[in-house]
Amino acid sequence: MSFVVEIQPEILPKTDNSVGIDLGIKTFATFSDGTKIDAPKPLKKRIKKLRKLSKPLSHKTKGSKRYEKARVRVAKLHAKLKDTRTDFLHKLSTKIIRENQTIVLEV
């Protein structure tokens, strides 16, 4: 299937706000105004679950039915992890863009 959709892009109002962002290890991001953004909580829970599901997978015989079931479980969890990270990044970047005119990143 193929869909063609015409949309009118929404032009955001101009603001004089600017923000500096420092990406870190303990906190995901720290803004120049002192705001700290942590990584999403569900992410930690899913990473823990991934460790729990990966171990039994390594003990299974490749090609067996049980190996395939375990592999599918791990693959689904990887997909959920990816979706959680992507959703978090999209929401955060959209919020930053809507609130600020100038964005500066520290590398």
Structural account:
The structure is a single chain. The protein has 107 residues and is an alpha+beta fold. It has a domain at 40-106. Helices cover 50% and strands 15% of the residues. It contains two helices and four strands. It has helices at residues 41-59, 65-99, and strands spanning 18-23, 29-31, 36-37, 102-106. It has a four-stranded mixed β-sheet with strand order 3-2-1-4, with no helix packed on it. Strand 2 and strand 3 (36-37) form a beta hairpin. Helix 1 (41-59) runs antiparallel to helix 2 (65-99). It is flat, with a radius of gyration of 20 Å. It starts with 17 loop residues before the first strand and ends with a strand.
Indicate the overall shape. flat
Class from helix and strand fractions: alpha+beta
Mean pLDDT: 90
* SSE order, one letter for each helix or strand: EEEHHE
Oligomeric composition of the shown chains: single chain
Number of strands: 4
Proportion of beta-strand residues? 5-15%
Largest sheet geometry: 4 strands, mixed
Low-confidence region ranges: none
Binned, the helix content reads 40-55%
Provide a concise account of the structure shown:
The chain is of the alpha+beta class and 107 residues long. 50% of the residues lie in helices and 15% in strands. Helix 1 (41-59) packs antiparallel against helix 2.
Feature tags:
alpha+beta; 4 strands; 4-stranded mixed sheet; flat; 107 residues
Topology:
Layout: E1 18-23, E2 29-31, E3 36-37, H1 41-59, H2 65-99, E4 102-106
Parallel strand pairs: 1-4
Antiparallel strand pairs: 1-2, 2-3
Helix pairs in contact: 1-2
